[in-house]
Every structure is written in C-alpha cells, then in structure tokens.
Amino acid sequence: MNEALSITHRIAVTLFFLIYVIKTVLLLSNRADLLQKFTKSTKVIEMIVSALFLITGVWLMMQLPHISTMLWVKIVLVLSSIPIAIVGFKKSNKILAAFSLLLITASYGLAEVQKKKREKGNVVAESNVNGQELYTTKCANCHGSDGKLGFSNAADLSKTSISTDSIKQVILKGRNTMVPVDLTEEQAAAVTAYVESELKGK
Ligand code: HEC
C-alpha cells in the first residue's frame, strides 16, 4: 500500500514538475500563444496530477513517525511556490514564474538528496546484518560466537589488536593455520566491521 502510494506520489511529482518546467520555459521565451494552448490542453491532466501529488504527499506524511526539518523545508518550499506560480502565470510575470520554478526545483532536489542518503543508510544497515550472518556461518566454528573459542588455535578475536585492513587481509588471504575464507571483498569488509564493532575488546 505504502509502496504504491509512494510510487504514485513520485510519478505525480515528476509530471507536475515537467508541466511546470514546460510552462515556465514557454513564458520566459515569449511564446504566449503556445503557452495558452499548452495550458488549455493540459488543464485536466494538471488538475489530476496536482491533486494526486498533494493527496499522496499528505497521506505519506501522516504515516511518518516524525517529520524531519528537511521535510518541513520541502513542504514550505512547495506550498509557497504554488501561489507565486498562480500569480506569475496569471500576470505573465517572468520573474515570479521563474522564482516559483526555482522553489519547486529546490524542493525536488532536496527530495532526491534525501533519497540518496536513505539508500546509503540502508546499505550500511544491510552490511551490518550481513556481517553478523557471515560471521556466524563462516567464522564462528573456529572463533566462537564471541570470538573466544580458539578452536584449533584460532586467535581470540576479542583480544585482537591488528588493524582493520589486516583483519580483512587475514580473512581473504589466510594466515599460517587459518586458511583463506571464500568471501567477496564486500563480504569481508562487512565481517571485518562486525568483528571490530561487536567482538574486539569485549
Ligand atoms: C578453520 C578455522 C578458522 C576459520 C573458519 C576462521 N578462522 Fe580466523 N583464525 C584461525 C586461526 C587458526 C588463526 C590464527 C592464525 C595464526 O596463527 O596466524 C586465525 C586468526 C584470525 C585473525 C587474526 C587475529 C589477530 O589478532 O591476529 C582474524 C582477524 C581472524 N582469524 C578472523 C576470522 C574471520 C573474520 C573469519 C570468518 C570470515 C575467520 N577468521 C575464520 C582459524 C579460523
């Protein structure tokens, strides 16, 4: 449900933005007749798109546990751009129209930046989970779930003092009686992070 809502929201926002850009470009390039035609022929679409944009936006917002400052900034930018745009287009005022497009663009940009940040956060969270899982399946039989088992002379990982890079190297290349563990570079990094944050010094 939320997934569908957020996709609808994104499509509506993109269409809304597109219509807006085209209208502003037409106004700024003195194509009054074309602008009028375009406005007329997209009137219904624009109404549907704006309504969808606002309804899905408000709906999504109500599901959030708390509204971040970024989101408030976004909302204020969008809401203030609308009356400016209405006046701008009605009076064919280029400065107002361009200014309102700038506000919308800024809020669109903010949304994208936030999305990137969220995605990055998810990757980190995922790699932490992966690290624990990988450790349990690939390392715990010798090192034990707390790193202290010492099976066949495995080093005590709670007492390890070697660097992040060295831990990764030991995992990937092996050392003395520890044979290399078959992991990708990324998986090794995830396990290393797990060893450092959850086992080392505990
Ligand atoms: C088959 C048993 C075995 C498995 C499986 C194994 N290790 Fe080891 N590990 C060892 C042994 C034995 C040593 C000691 C090597 C030495 O004497 O140089 C060691 C050493 C290490 C060291 C060096 C610690 C230090 O302070 O020098 C690290 C780090 C390490 N293992 C991490 C891991 C991780 C992470 C995994 C899983 C991805 C893993 N090991 C899987 C047996 C194992």
How would you characterize this protein structure?
With 202 residues, the chain is an all-alpha fold. It has 2 domains: 2-123; 139-199, Orthogonal Bundle (Cytochrome Bc1 Complex, Chain D, domain 2), CATH 1.10.760. It has 8 helices and no strands. It has helices at 2-28, 32-41, 43-63, 69-90, 94-138, 140-143, 164-173, 185-199. Bound molecules: heme C. Heme C binds at residues 138-139, 141-143, 152-155, 157, 160, 162, 167, 170-171, 175-178, 181, 191, 195.
Rg computed from alpha carbons, rounded to a whole number of angstroms: 27 Å
Largest sheet: none
Distance between the termini: 43 Å
Number of domains: 2
Strand content: under 5%
Summarize the structure.
With 202 residues, the protein is mainly alpha-helical.
List the helices and strands and how they pair.
Elements: H1 2-28, H2 32-41, H3 43-63, H4 69-90, H5 94-138, H6 140-143, H7 164-173, H8 185-199
Helix pairs in contact: 1-3, 1-5, 4-5, 5-8, 7-8
The structure holds heme C.
Features of this protein?
Cytochrome Bc1 Complex, Chain D, domain 2; 2 domains; about 200 residues; binds heme C
